[in-house]
Amino acid sequence: xxxxxxxxxxxxxDIMEETRFKKRHKPLIQRLEKKLxxxxxxxxxxxxxxxxxEKENEHHGQGKRERGVTKIQFRDMLHCALxxxxxxxMDRMFLAVDKGPSPFITMETWATTLSxxxxxxxxxxxxxxxxVYDIMGEGVLARDNIFxxxxxxxxSQGGEDADESVKDMIxxxxxxxxxxxxxxxxxxxxxxxxxxxxxLLEVFGQCLPSRMAAYSFLTTFTHTPPTL
Length: 228
Known about the structure:
single chain, 228 residues, mainly alpha, two-stranded antiparallel sheet, two-stranded antiparallel ribbon, elongated, disordered N terminus
């Protein structure tokens, strides 16, 4: 339950405006509290962040007002607040969290994604990262897919030399992660490899905020100081 910390979440909002907002979204927050890694007060704070971004983006068209946080806004937030700068993977990440055609993300998607990024379990992160890497949903990462992932994440040294470096990396990674030696990395190969060595979680590109970035962002809204 919300205590004194959540009585007035944002001093830049009118107290009546915030009270109406909290009352309107109480059912959603109660539902999210049961399945995410945030408590009620933290979810209220995150919903206020969403609401402020939503207000910035309000526009009118054909007599109908559209409201919501756009994927572009969310992308900018991830870039600035969570230091997620791998543009090559950003589109894949959005497909992993929200496959809908709308340019907006819902408050539920907002909270669910931040729950994963900031406090997700290793298993949740394994599932997410593999989904990002396996953009076709085939359940395996073939060599050509791995090549494009690694090539896009590398700072190119130019032409053929960069490609050769990627090919060398593929040999090292597949030797380590292709547990059943079938020439591809299945979800089980990936999961078992990461469980054994968590450093391999983002071996094909950054899908998650750094530990320090997550810590810094958490301190802006949580009443429970996170530990590094």
